[in-house]
Amino acid sequence: MMLFLMAAGLTLVFGVMGLINLAHGSLFMVGAFACAWVAAATGWFWLGLLASLVAAAGAGALVEMLVIRRLYRRDHLDQVLATFALILVFSEGTRWVFGSFPLYLNLPSALSGAVTLPGGLVYPLFRLVIIAVGAAVAVGLWLLITRTRLGIRIRAGEADREMIAALGVDIARLYTIVFALGAALAGLAGALVGSIQSVQVGMGEPVLILAFVVVVIGGIGSIKGALIGALLVGMTDTLGKALLPDLFARFSQAPGGDAIGASLASMLIYILMALVLILRPQGLFGTGA
Cα-Cα-Cα-Cα dihedral of 216, 177, 188, 11, to 10°? Predict the structure, then answer.
């Protein structure tokens, strides 16, 4: 579900604005640091979570107005270079403000511990909360896109931006809202991940690569594709790393079978992406050009 939150914002921005945003992982990091700093200063985890949304959305809106707006008519190479430069700016700026040492988030007691699921499986409570948050965001995005005026404008902007601009829609404002919404989703994902792991500079880049894989598998611009793609990537990665090393060690005649299995497991999601692209080049729920 954390992958879905990242990929949903990424695919929304790419689908509507046609922008390759490598700085999406930096907004993930901004949300994590905002949550950790506010939660430590106030002692309220929930206030930190709210701060992650506000900080990431605010940073996203500023970035869109100051930098991204100048890139819409440029080709994708210019967009990649500019947003890569933003990664460096965000990383060094965060290091300057918070230092190089990681921060840690303390979960409230109500979210700590584990619960026993039907069948006797013991599972961490906070991970169930993350699944519930991801599901709630998926439903909320679906309602936003299909049931609101803003959603109609977003879909229209994805189909034909010149036409809705000619109809009087402020396309610059719409793009700022879409970019800030995508940034807020990334910030929320960062805060949730930071609650499980540590919060540190550069934490968004590894997740960004996985989010791009999810977007490619699900189809560019498709929220449903982001959800299904995130589930496929998450399950493939987890099951591969859990099962393949032991499977290769048990059946391989060559020494180091478990290492071969581990190497194959790390490549499994990219093999999945290649298979999807071979069978359906536009992704599972993407539309053809």
Answer: 0
Q: What is the DSSP string of 182-242?
A: HHHHHHHHHHHHHHHS-B-TTTHHHHHHHHHHHHHHH-TT-HHHHHHHHHHHHHHHHHHHH
* E strand or H helix that includes residue 152: helix 149-159
Of 134, 116, 132, the closest CA to residue 124 belongs to 116
Q: Please name the helix (run of DSSP H) or strand (run of DSSP E) that holds residue 124, with its range, or none.
A: strand 122-124
Contact between 105 and 48 (Cβ < 8 Å): yes
User: Which three-class secondary structure state does DSSP give residue 103?
Assistant: strand
- Cα separation, 144 vs 160, in Å, equals 19
Distance (Å) of CA 56 to CA 68, 150, 281? 15, 20, 32
Q: How far apart are CA 233 and CA 224, in angstroms?
A: 14
**Neighbour-count burial of 143, counting CB atoms closer than 10 A to its CB (0-12 exposed, 13-18 middle, 19+ buried):** exposed
pLDDT tens for each residue of 72-115: 778 888 888 998 999 999 999 999 998 888 888 888 888 888 88
Q: CB-based contacts of 23: which residues, under 8 Å, 6+ apart?
A: 63, 83, 84, 86, 87, 90
DSSP helix/strand/coil, 74: coil
